[in-house]
Amino acid sequence: MFKKSLLLASVAALALAAPATAKELKTLGVSVGLMGNPFFVQVVKGAEDGAKAINPNVKVIAGGVDYDLNKQFTQVDNFIAAGVDMVLINAVDPVAIEPAMKRLHDAGIVTMAVDVAGKGADGTVQSNNVQAGEKACQFIADKLKGKGNVVILNGPPVSSVIDRVAGCKSILSKSPDIKVLSDNQNAKGSREGALEVMIGTLTAFDNIDAVFSINDPQSIGADLAAKQLGRTNFFITSVDGAPDIEGQLKDKNSLILASAAQDPYAMAKKAVEIGYDIMQGKPPANPMTLIPVELITRDNIATYKGWTSK
Description:
The protein is of the alpha/beta class and 310 residues long.
């Protein structure tokens, strides 16, 4: 009788110790701000490759929402209807996205915020955007030797942009002789938006010494605006480290001199890995994962390895 009881106890212990069946990642949804931005193309690619490393047969549903919150809500509802297992979301509004996050949670779907914060997400993976703004604007402060007129070319009011501008301002504020002429113009995160805004800015201000733009597409648009108006008496710094900016930094005729480089592919791939762990009941100790950035300039562009991509 004792031996039988011992055997039953051993079997029960083994059953408790046996690992639970892993939850499958069969379908992944990816929602980004703007598919026309090369950064987000790489986010989708990194997410897809990260998901396929887990399940080669995974289905990935991805799309941009043109920085429109209502479109993002509709996209989330479509993800739920499609029965996705995980969503990577680049929130158009970090706070207003919360109802959509709740709907995902209620449907049992793991949510990972990527590149920007999203209230209610299970986890967040983003670049250290404050650091990006600091590095890009420290370059400005150093080159101007603490004196001059600066324009901050703002963008969509998402957390990454807000953090970059905050980081920039924290550096520029240390130089009393640096004057910020404009910091509230939304260039929409795009080349076209920046071209339009920068033409207006250059028309309004005769004396600009430097421009900080919140991403590379806007920087390229600002450079185009300067060329159209024949302005060459200022320089531009940026954030992204995108392939397009590599050519700009190597071009002596470009006004773009520096960009704080991110790695969107690696960021999204990491988000999928963390999200999959959460699916298995293993959340990270810290829900926020910050990835450091590096400043690339005309002086070190030759050694820059570029975005991780496959």
